[in-house]
UniProtKB/TrEMBL annotation:
<dbReference type="InterPro" id="IPR025827">
    <property type="entry name" value="Zn_ribbon_recom_dom"/>
</dbReference>
<dbReference type="InterPro" id="IPR006118">
    <property type="entry name" value="Recombinase_CS"/>
</dbReference>
<dbReference type="Pfam" id="PF07508">
    <property type="entry name" value="Recombinase"/>
</dbReference>
<dbReference type="InterPro" id="IPR038109">
    <property type="entry name" value="DNA_bind_recomb_sf"/>
</dbReference>
<feature type="domain" description="Resolvase/invertase-type recombinase catalytic">
    <location>
        <begin position="14"/>
        <end position="162"/>
    </location>
</feature>
<dbReference type="Pfam" id="PF00239">
    <property type="entry name" value="Resolvase"/>
</dbReference>
<dbReference type="InterPro" id="IPR006119">
    <property type="entry name" value="Resolv_N"/>
</dbReference>
<keyword id="KW-0175">Coiled coil</keyword>
<dbReference type="InterPro" id="IPR050639">
    <property type="entry name" value="SSR_resolvase"/>
</dbReference>
<dbReference type="Pfam" id="PF13408">
    <property type="entry name" value="Zn_ribbon_recom"/>
</dbReference>
<keyword id="KW-0233">DNA recombination</keyword>
<protein>
    <submittedName>
        <fullName>Recombinase family protein</fullName>
    </submittedName>
</protein>
<keyword id="KW-0238">DNA-binding</keyword>
<dbReference type="InterPro" id="IPR036162">
    <property type="entry name" value="Resolvase-like_N_sf"/>
</dbReference>
<feature type="active site" description="O-(5'-phospho-DNA)-serine intermediate">
    <location>
        <position position="22"/>
    </location>
</feature>
<feature type="coiled-coil region">
    <location>
        <begin position="376"/>
        <end position="457"/>
    </location>
</feature>
<keyword id="KW-0229">DNA integration</keyword>
Length: 491
């Protein structure tokens, strides 16, 4: 049967009649297309609707899904604001699946379209119809929750076994449900970590450099700031599976991090592209105090990191002198903007010379002056990290005990969590002195190498290229008086 097309103008909306029959339905009494059409047209007449309805008829299509040509046309007409009512003889004419039916009804409601099924006396414009719709919605939501819970349990089981559950991340390919390293992309991943950690480039600068070189991200798309950040924070690159870390806040439509107790973490689950130490160093750097992008790109060596020794405020550049002999000054922002500090301005070239001289002295003072301080800093950081890790492990085990006593998990799951807790306790009991002494020579070499690289950069490269590297090492510079400064490192 052909579908009648509407010749109505856009000034009013038409009534849509939808009829469907599958091959099996044709042998059943009362479901023929002619019978459906006749009954629905009679209903329109009885209701006193004078406009000629427009027919949408799917002949020989099952209601197992919504992939039907005339149903698609009907949906398109609804979205175009052309329909006022949709009529069917029975609810199963439009869909046999409750979720599909409710999704269509939601769509009709969004465009202010009434949905009427004459057999069930169902009309979304009437109180009984809305009540029925609410009951159907509650049933559908219950079914959706059951499906989601089953999917969650299946994914949780797979994740604990180290199985990859989604599309492969950049740098990998999925072969027979196993992640394998894609070496060409893996080299780009290593370059990105190196640019961020050792060259001092930020997310935006890395993305720009990759795009300028014509290096595409996955699916031949350009790199973005967000893509670089996600790559640098993804633990998969150190071989760790971290599942169930984030969820979507439906109210705000944003990704939010779950409680750590709900994470599924499996170390050494996949081949790593980045070693664990490098990955952890990148995460530490991200947690450091951020320097404003404008300060990072300013043509002044200490912009963004120079602080006033009197009040602690940042010092910014201003200019002084005559039109022919202008010179730069570093002024305390509290003095400059608020008048609340009495610090005097300093000639910028002099402050930068003091800094360069002091920085060069670091290379000769590491062995005698800095080692005790570095050891103490490393010890304190190690102790704090272990305490946090132990606290999280104890809280996680407590939750597992509660889950076991409630019959939600098996004894084997609880025993596995207990072994993990014992392992964390054992790590926490090791004296940090011994650990830090073993890493001391490596730390010294790293410091010496960084200082030499920065000194070379200061002497050779433009300020704009030197500053990102400098900021990876120097946290702040405090000027107290003439030739009296303090250089504070990130270590």
């Amino acid at each position: 049967m052909n579908v009648h097309t509407s010749s109505a103008s856009s000034e009013y909306r038409f009534i849509a009649i939808y009829c469907r029959v599958s091959t099996d339905d044709q042998v059943k009494e009362g479901t023929s297309l002619e019978d459906q059409e006749s009954r629905l047209l009679s209903y329109c007449t009885a209701m006193g609707w004078k406009d000629t309805p427009v027919l949408f008829i799917d002949d020989g299509y099952s209601a197992k899904d919504t992939d039907r040509p005339q149903l698609k046309k009907l949906v398109e007409a609804v979205k175009n604001g052309e329909v006022s009512k949709v009529l069917v003889t029975k609810l199963d004419r439009i869909s046999r699946k409750l979720l599909d039916l409710l999704n269509l009804i939601d769509l009709f409601s969004e465009y202010d379209v009434s949905f009427i099924s004459i057999n069930e006396s169902f009309d979304t414009n009437t109180p009984p119809g809305r009540l029925t719709l609410s009951v159907l919605g509650a049933v559908a939501e219950f079914e959706r929750t059951r499906i989601r819970d089953r999917a969650y349990e299946n994914m949780l089981h797979s994740a604990k076994k180290g199985k990859w559950l989604t599309q492969s991340p950049y740098g990998y390919r999925l072969e027979e449900k196993t992640l394998v390293i894609h070496e060409n992309e893996a080299n780009i991943v290593r370059d990105i970590y190196n640019m961020y950690l050792h060259k001092g480039l930020g997310f935006y600068a890395i993305a720009r450099q990759l795009n300028e070189k014509g290096i595409p991200s996955r699916y031949n798309k350009e790199w973005s700031l967000r893509a670089v950040k996600l790559l640098l924070t993804n633990p998969i690159y150190k071989g760790t599976l971290a599942w169930n870390r984030v969820t979507v806040d439906e109210k705000h439509g944003k990704r939010v991090e779950r409680d750590k107790e709900d994470w599924v973490i499996v170390d050494d689950a996949f081949p790593s592209i980045i070693n664990k130490e490098t990955w952890e160093d990148v995460q530490k750097k991200m947690k450091q105090v951020k320097i404003a992008p404008r300060a990072q790109t300013s043509p002044h060596l200490l912009g963004g990191i120079l602080k006033c020794g009197r009040c602690g405020s940042g010092m910014s550049i201003s200019w002084s002198g005559s039109k022919t002999k202008r010179y730069r000054l570093y002024r305390c922002s509290a003095y400059k903007n608020k008048g609340t500090c009495t610090s005097k301005p300093y000639r910028a070239n002099k402050v930068e010379e003091w800094f360069k001289e002091g920085f060069k002295q670091l290379s000769t003072s590491i062995d005698t002056e800095m080692i005790p301080q570095l050891i103490e800093t490393q010890q304190n950081e190690t102790i704090n990290n272990r305490e946090k890790k132990l606290k999280n492990a104890e809280e996680r085990y407590k939750r597992k005990v509660e889950a076991y006593t409630s019959g939600l998990i098996e004894l084997s799951d609880l025993e596995k969590e207990k072994k993990q807790l014992d392992k964390v306790k054992e790590e926490a009991s090791v004296k940090p002195d011994k650990i830090e002494q073993e890493n001391l020579e490596k730390l010294q070499r790293e410091l010496e190498s960084k200082i030499k690289s920065i000194i070379d950069a200061i002497e050779i490269l433009p300020v704009e290229e030197t500053k990102p590297l400098l900021h990876t090492f120097v946290k702040k510079v405090i000027v107290y008086n003439e030739e009296e400064i303090e250089i504070v490192l990130h270590y």
